[in-house]
Amino acid sequence: MVHRFLIYLLLPLCFLLSPVYSMKADEREVAEYEVKAAYLYNFAKFVEWPPEVFGGPETPLTICILGEDPFGAAMNAIKRKTFGTRKVAVKQVHDVQEAKGCQVLFISASEEERLQQTLEALGHAGVLTISDMRRFVQAGGMINFIMKDDKVRFSINAAAARRAGLKINSQLLSLAVTVME
Amino acid sequence: MRYRFSTLRRVLAGVLCICSLLLLYPAARAWADEQGEAQPADLSELSILDLMNVTVYGASKFDQTLSEAPSSVSIVTADEIKKYGYRTLADVLKSVRSFYITSERNYSYIGARGFNRPGDYNTRILLLIDGHRANDNIYNSASPGTEFPMNIDLIDRVEVIRGPSSSIYGTNAFFAVISIITKKGRDVKGVEVSGAAGSLDTYTGRLSAGGYSPGGPEALLSGSAMDSKGNHRLYYREFDPAFSSDPHAANNGIAENCDYDHSYSLFSKASWNDFTLEGVFGSRTKGIPTAPYGIVFNDTRNQTIDERGYLDLKYENNMGDRSRITARVFYDHYKFDGTYIIDYPPITVLKLLDWGEWWGGEMQVTTTELKNNKIVAGLEYEDNIRQDQYSYDEEPLFSYLDDKRDTKRWAVYLQDELLLSTNLILNAGVRYDHYETFGNNANPRLSLIYTPLNKTTLKLLYGTAFRAPNVYELYYEDSFTQKSNPDLKPEEITTYELVLEQYLGEALRISAAGFQYRTKDLITLETDPGDGLMVYRNTEKVSANGLELELENIWKSGMRGRISYTVQKVTDDATHDLSVNSPRQLAKINLTAPMLNNKLFVGIEEQYTGRRRTVAGKHAGGFMITNVTLFSRQLAKELELSGSVYNLFDRTYGDPGGEEHIQDIIEQDGRTYRVKLAYHF
Q1: By three-state DSSP, how is residue B49 classified?
Q2: Is the N end or the C end of chain A the one with fewer CB atoms within 10 Å?
Q3: B455 to chain A, closest Cα gap in Å
Q4: Sign of the CA dihedral B95, B97, B100, B101?
Q5: By CB neighbour count within 10 A (0-12 exposed, 13-18 middle, 19+ buried), where does A73 fall?
Q6: ipTM, two decimals
Q7: Count of domains in chain A?
Q8: For the whole prediction, is pTM greater than 0.80?
Q9: Cβ of residue B31 closer than 8 Å to a chain A Cβ
């Protein structure tokens, strides 16, 4: 009885030995972050910022990444885009003060430990905060990426957005997996 | 000696097949690379809606919404249904931690938390399709086998919510709620045709069409059919004249062409603005090879026809920023048509017919107006305008039962999810049900969800649930085998649960759950010593405790694996014996891995079911089943192709029969195959 059970258990483990899984891991991650990069740009179309956030019609839409950059080359396509009459700028920021100058801020999972302080420091600066770390919206972040059936989806904390002076279009809310009010 | 060698041979054959696959891999990979990427070049050109439909392979994160649920939830997605080659909802449930399926070649019965009494009709599991109650109004039963009125390809996800949920859903949410979410028009977009051929002369076909315009209407329409000859020669020693003195023993114990199974189903769903109209209809005909209830053995005329349909109109709207209202009105239909050949003498056709029609309405309001509170309040009403049961001999016509009922029920419920602090949620709810048949029943549920660390969740749950007696148990009588009992009360269960979920990194999840439950007033079929007639009475009391462990991991390469183990003890309070058809242990392994540049997937399942006590006091041995599926998408444009082998090692195993069967253990199928393809226009 026991030896048969072991054989059954060993069979699927054979796959661990196979060369099938030496596939380039990077190949996969670029695809995921290419989708997320496209989302970052598209989310901006559904958000209304308070007028003082954009200096004037020439001010670019600034998308920033706080912490370790998981996007890499995935952001290249976004840098070339335009947002209405504005250009799109993509920046890597290293602290919260720098981040306050951005309209869209992606907080990398590397910042998980400091999340509470980061969000508090951003306060009502009118920055749309986005991440893909666990429980981001529960902690007060505005949009969180979640995986559903190998597809990138998102949850929204509408209350957090309101507190920062941002208005999120109800069309985007209706597409979210969950909305925290 | 000989037996050992043949097992070894099978294992070697399996390993050889896999090794040759691996050797072919580099060549296949090169070819697949040539075929090019399926993804569009510039994702930034896509709209949000399109981005939501881009499949990302090898993503390394789990579905994060599970931790907030006030119970232990398992989810099976449409993707897994394809990769593991699931044919029915029963196949899906066989892979879910702590669930098991028992089959007697007519219906499939769901075992949850170690409870699956032979002769019961899946009444202690509530099955929902898009929030609509699938359990019928005669037996309150919802079967997951081929009798389920919907093609499995239409399922977007199956959510298995363990534990008592009567505080929200009312009756039948005793051990679990299985919530099925169906696909939308946008998931099909265009026309899709699918066909499958498999062992035992099994053929299935499906034609679906879906459309979606953003801001406008969305629709999905689908029709399916299935035909199987089944196992056309089934041997039963209990009916073999050489070994048995049973008066119906015949044909050397072989039931020929009695295992047939054919069905058809229709599905339609249309939504516009806040309204969704859904229509479901399915009919299944199954032969009965096991000859229960003393019917004539090896007669192809013995059969059951189950027909189920409904129309459901739902309205959902956000009232302002913080509230949401859902209202629903529905009309349901159920028909059961059983043909049983009885040799009184003479040989006579006995018909058992059930006909149910009912309609109802529901309304639910969810609001977060009160700070830190998410309140859900609802009310339900159901009017069973027809609950007919007939039993009669066809020729000469003699009626045993002609019972017509018309009962109503209504319920109100309230639930509050209270945020006590940023990492502590208290979920409290209660529901009050009123039935014309037996009166009232109230069921509370309390759960505490504590997240001390970002990656650790602890849940403490307490809840009660009930199961109302159905019209079959209350009113069926035929004056020579069974009598009715209109005084039946509902069954009750009290459950305590402790669940721990821990994430390690982003890709490894461990969960451990301990449960304890006590049931009382279980509605049991007994024989009245006074008149020798069978009757349903609230008699049995069953207690149980168990432990469930699960480990799930997603590798960077895109491989996903899950292993679960359940140990449980379910005992009858009166006799202190282990319950019939309750396995002490269950273990499952699920593994899926991408190959050939994500165009080919292999899915492996191993399911171990422990020893189970039978009605005769013997045991159905423990067994391990292995299923393997190879699934490919985009090997050719818009084509999905899969090949599956079920019970790869041709294990011989059986499920305990019920009191109505002469067979103590009913043998199940050996190794079977299936090839399936789907083409999207």
Answers
A1: helix
A2: N
A3: 8
A4: negative
A5: exposed
A6: 0.79
A7: 1
A8: yes
A9: no
